[in-house]
Amino acid sequence: MELMHLFKQGGFIMYPLLIFSVAVWTVAIQKIWFLMNFNKQAKYFYDEGMRIIQSKRFNEMEWLYKNCPELIAKPHSAVFEDASSSEEWEARMQRRLNETSMGLKKNIWILGTVASSAPFVGLFGTVWGIMGSFKEIGAAGKAGFAIVSASISEALIATAAGILVAVVALLFYNYILVKIGESLAMFKNGIGDLAESFNSAKK
C-alpha cells in the first residue's frame, strides 16, 4: 500500500521508470538463465566432442552438432573443417567465435541504456515537480511550504526512483558482462583444446 502511495505521489514520470524497471528485470533474469544453460550445454558438447576425437569416430561429429544450439555448434563444427592453410582456418574459427560472442551479448544494451538514461528521466520529473511548485506559488500569490509540498514531494520521489532504477540496471549490467566474459573464455579454451586434440588425432 505504501509503495502504491509513493508511486502515485511520484507523478506521471513514474510510469516510464516502471517500464524501465520491468525491462531491466526481464532482460537480467533471461540473460542469467541463458548463460547458465549455455555453460551447461557447452560443457556437454565439449565432453562429447572430446570423446569422438579420442575414439577417432569423426563421422559422428555431424550428428552430434546437428541439433546443437547454433552459438555452440558453429565453432565446434569449425574445429573439424578442413582449410587450405592454418591462417584460413584460424580466421574462420575467429569469425565463428565472434558470432558466439555477439550472441551472448545480445540485448544487454538495454541494461546499459537504462543505467545511463534513468537518472535523467528522474531528473525530468524533478524539474517538472519544481515547475509545478512555482505554478502553485503564482496561483496562490504567496509562498509557503504547505503550498509547494506536494510538488516538491513529487520531484524528490521521481529523482529517487530514477537513481534506484539506474543503480539496479548498472549492477545487473556489470554482473552479466563479467559472466559473459567468463563463459566466453571457458568456451574459447574448450574449443582450443578440441582443436589441439583433433590435430593430434589426425597424425
TrEMBL record:
UniProtKB keywords: Cell membrane, Membrane, Protein transport, Transmembrane, Transmembrane helix, Transport
Gene Ontology annotations for the cellular component aspect, listed alphabetically: plasma membrane
InterPro entries: ExbB/TolQ_transport, MotA_ExbB_proton_chnl
Membrane topology value: Multi-pass membrane protein
KW Transport (keyword) present: yes
Biological process terms in GO annotation: protein import
Domain MotA/TolQ/ExbB proton channel: residue ranges: 80-186
Family (UniProt): Belongs to the exbB/tolQ family.
Name used for this protein in its record: MotA/TolQ/ExbB proton channel domain-containing protein
Gene source species: Bacteriovorax stolpii (Bdellovibrio stolpii)
Species classification: Bacteria, Pseudomonadati, Bdellovibrionota, Bacteriovoracia, Bacteriovoracales
